[in-house]
Amino acid sequence: MSERSTQVGRALAHESAHGHVTGEARYTDDLLPRTPEALHAWPVQSVHAHARVVSVDTEAAQAVVGVVAVLSAASVPPGGQNQVGAVRLDEPLFPDEVSHHGQPVVWVLGETLEAAREGAAAVVVDYEVLPAILTMAEALAAKSTLSEAMIIVSGEPEAALANAPRRLEGELEIGGQEHFYLETQAALATWDEAGGVFVHSSTQHPSETQHIVARVLGLPAHAVTCQSLRMGGAFGGKEVQANPIAAVAALGAKVTGRPVRVRLDRQRDMQITGKRHPFWGRYRVGFDDEGRLLALDVALYSDGGWSMDLSKPIMYRALFHIDNCYRLPNLRVVGRVLRTNKTSQTAFRGFGGPQGMVVIEEIVDRVARAVGRPAHEVRALNFYRPGDCTHYGQEVRDADRIARIWDALMTSAQVEARRAEVDRANATCTHEKRGLAITPVKFGISFTTSFLNQAGALVLIYADGSVQVNHGGTEMGQGLHTKMMQIAADGLGVPLSSVRLMPTRTDKVPNTSATAASSGSDLNGAAVEIACTQLRERLAAVAGRMLDLPPADLRFAQGRVFPFWGEPTGERSQGFAEVVARAYLERVQLFAAGYYRTPEIHYDEQLGRGKPFHYYCYGAAVTEVAVDGFTGQYEIVRVDVLHDVGRSISPLIDRGQIEGGYIQGLGWLTCEELVWNEQGALATRGASTYKLPSLGECPEVFNVELLAMADEPKVVKGSKAVGEPPFMLAISAREALREAVAAFAPEGAPASSVALDCPSTPEAVYWAIEALRGDGRS
Ligand code: MTE
Ligand code: HPA
Ligand code: MOS
After folding, report:
1. S-S: 591 plus which of 166, 170, 460, 732, CB 3.0-4.6 Å?
2. Residue 483 Cα to ligand 2 middle (Å)
């Protein structure tokens, strides 16, 4: 039965866009007024980066008016565990040894937030200070690690390095990034009369939040229900780190019998929660005189902070993306996660991919300068070609799209003409230099932890023909629910107004994976579609009897059921609601569960071989910048993007993801800088000291195009994931800055390399220019 897609492919606004801007959309903490008897929680935070907790004296706190309880390890009920580690059991909720500055030691519950806060200030903690490890270099020297070495080797890297006509070596440090979701971590827990707990949580992973709450309370999972209404941004920061917050709320509810609300303020959120992993890369590269990459040996280190969290799969994704779009026939890449006394670094859009790709783009630029060719030529020279395989043995399917996108963007963004224009301008202006760069993106889609690639949906049709859709994915602003509504509406042939998307709850779809790895709409969309197909088949049988037609001849569209050769309101047609009403009378089941798992993916860590990704997303971006030589300040003049989202389910949503991803990547690479002081305390703990990209950093011209004729046959509705890949388009901005910096080199002394710190803040750009001007400066 062929369907006319009426909703899928439409450029719709986000289903909650109106609520987002009017304030009508409710977030977890907005539910607080519904439970006026709720208690408020405030943490007592460590004032040391590493120390043994000798004693905690709560007497003065208990005496503060309005303080109701102090939650500590002693509050954990028999059978429960003082343990919230999601991957490894290495995260006590109430630690007897603190491992980073600002870490919660105990939590105070009060009638008001002020009482809880005052109570927390009155708690006296006695510490025995221990030596702290605050940098990756210190961690490496002390052999302080969280993981074994992860290794992927292909070809003969050592021999190829030795035989390469030319060689380079170098290193690069890459900074972390604060998620700065507008909605900070939040949870609200209520104890119910049947001995269970209901937790509203701003979580990307309700099933795991449920599981961790159950562990802390010593309950079976069925006693815990977790709901994620929507999130005001998550970006990976709520993939695991929502769990301890929910656990505190649930434990508080258990101990006091009253609802408990936890919501971190911005300072506490920044001090307590993990960030993007800082990376450190060391490499040796071998190449020929044209800039062809012949051999590469890379060591990647990441700063995992104090606990394991998702550091291992994040490092794996960095190893998987060290190639970006380039063929590296002889490669050895080794990753190690270092343990430091910092916040536990965690998932962040791109999940290690961006760090791996910044390293290879830095290398390619250095190779290009060494052989004296424009970087964009050396990039294109090294592209994967159809039939090529990655270093981990996966075929680069649709590799031709890399060149297709590249060539189309070179033309549409007029790269050659504008490069000439930039050169002319730079020749005449000494104080301001322009830079223009184009970089490609290839990003693998699937959780690299293969078993996570599964999803479920539960679709309910009520007797009046209205539809509720439940699925396992969470909404964090990315537009997942909008896409799911479009898929469900077309799946049943009803208008969007007939479909209601329900908040994500663990009692509707169990054992879900985090909404992460950009796979939310691929996985849940397929599950929703499978559920709708079952329902449509059942209803077709009913309608067939009503219309005296074979079910296979019926079409469902525009809220009607009719033969595919007829009209929706033709003589032989029925309203969807009428068919549903009849189905109910005929005792036909009007709800269905859909389940989907991604086929064929696997990875063998020992061999370093497999097919970890279902497919790849491709894109490219051109960025032009203008840099002021006196201050290092710069402007993003123009950005052009061509990006592959397959056949878009929701073009407006996808465009928003591309623009937002680019700007977030731009923030990471240019202005956002985390600073810790000598005591290991985070110095940048608010928007006043942590510079986020804002309207002022947005490019004056921002052209975004979706790649045409890009159907992905193996994914729901021919679409592709979009959430993370565009983040890495911003690497073009850093490379454009490097081009501009290079233009400050004294005449006749072309720079053979341009060292540029990452993030490339105005200060970093200034010092990079200074280093180049060197003696040539007048
Ligand atoms: N977009 C918005 N507005 N808010 C977010 O928190 N998270 C990003 C991306 N886009 C995020 C976002 C991350 S890290 C991921 S993995 C994907 O959305 C997750 O959603 P998806 O799988 O439905 O694309
Ligand atoms: N991406 C995001 N989250 C994850 C992944 C991944 O590849 N693997 C495990 N958790
Ligand atoms: Mo996204 S970092 O996979 O939540």
Report:
1. 460
2. 21
